[in-house]
Amino acid sequence: MSFYDSDDEPPNLIEVTDDAILSTLPDSTSVPNTARAASDISATQQQSKSLSQPKEQAPKNVRVPLTIICGFLGAGKSTLLKRILTERHGYRIAVIMNEFGDTADIEAKTINVASADDPTAENTEEFLELANGCLCCSIKDSGVAAIEKLMLKKGAFDYILLETTGLADPGPIAGMFWHNEEYATGLADITLDGVICVVDAVFGKKQMEEDHHTDDSKIGESLRQISGSDIVLLNKADLVSPSDLHETEAIIRSVNPAAPIYRTVKGEIDLGLILGVQSYKLPPPLASDEEKHARVHSDACDHDHDEEEKPLNHYQIRGVTSLQVTCPALSQAQFDKLDEWIRSVLWENKLPAPATPSTTEGESPEIRVLRCKGAFTSTTGKHYVLQGVRSMYEISELEENVAGKDQNEHASVGLPDRGKIVLIGKGLDDQVRKSLESVFV
Ligand SMILES: Nc1nc2c(ncn2[C@@H]2O[C@H](COP(=O)(O)OP(=O)(O)OP(=O)(O)O)[C@@H](O)[C@H]2O)c(=O)[nH]1
Fold this sequence. Notes:
Keywords: Chaperone, GTP-binding, Hydrolase, Nucleotide-binding, Zinc. This protein is α/β, with parallel strands linked by helices. Helices cover 28% and strands 20% of the residues. Among the domains are: 64-111 and 126-273, Rossmann fold (3-Layer(aba) Sandwich), CATH 3.40.50.300; 321-353 and 366-400 and 413-439, 2-Layer Sandwich (Hypothetical Protein Yjia, Chain: A,domain 2). The strands form 2 sheets. Strands 3-4-2-5-1-6-7-8 form an 8-stranded mixed beta sheet, with helices on both faces.
């Protein structure tokens, strides 16, 4: 069946009135219509008209960054979205609010969620003008076809935000956008900037505990969301005590040590920390424990730091664990061994056979890596970044102008003295650590 069979066909643009514009905003009262300049209005009308057919002068060679916003049910995803859309950031943003819940469908690229009996799945596509002068194209549809069709309007917006449902697993969605070269149409024009997970400071810990207690062969959604994220926002920080915040942060960090955690109230955050961060291109912020500790506690930090590093002795998150291994500058042989090791673990879910088999070590448990990141150098002085989502991974050489940047210039840039590899997933025990470390001997 063709992807563009009539049932799957994404909707055409509908003309919108000012009332329609305001009613589609997350909170229409917060966007004063009078704030729009006449020139902005005519620009909007011009854009609206041009939407039904691609603008000929639209730049075709620039990739549009996309940020996925996932997070627990009611954690504050829409609040964050609203905040981004009403900030003066200069981006013209396309927003996709969708029902990307059935991840298997996404992987199969056969999504058609607009089922006749789902009243929320009505196909609408609207073009909005916001008070800050940015344009917002909102697609309340959920198929890949809708995104591809959106990309035909490339040039009308320069950033895409995709808000998933509270139950969505961001991994397959991120994977789809990350390695989209195989798709012939619009998706190839998108570059994945990063995945933000909004965690509810009030219920997040309970949610993770519940997911932790589920069947050990499964991984709960909240843990998948945290493990698949590049940035975590611990939202509703106003509603809980500092010690509760700290405890939730510790759990999040134990699941995903590679993601910076920022405390927020109603999604209030410097947008430079979450948008345009190029998580899949630049070295991950694999800070030392001390630096990570400082970053997590940079603001609203009013608790006793001596209390901080107490282990979580009442429970451990069993569903997902992480493994961090440092590595020296790699020779070509070590580089090849690392590549082979990663392939075995990500593709075959097992450790490669050791060069000298040990009689003391038993069968390795099944390994399931949800996410891996790393940054390291070669003995020839080249810098590399490792990125992986599920079974897909990429080791890319860092451009010299990026590698040479001062660490302070960009939160994500700056190579550690020693390389570091982080794996997040299941079955990452000491045997896996030893096996990975043996690559660097
Ligand atoms: N006190 C407080 N309330 C917040 C904060 N952030 C969001 N809320 C409120 O929490 C409720 C849920 O926020 P939403 O932004 O709708 O959450 P969501 O993640 O989009 O919800 P779903 O789409 O249903 O999963 C709303 O009533 C918000 O006003 C915060 O930082 N502090």
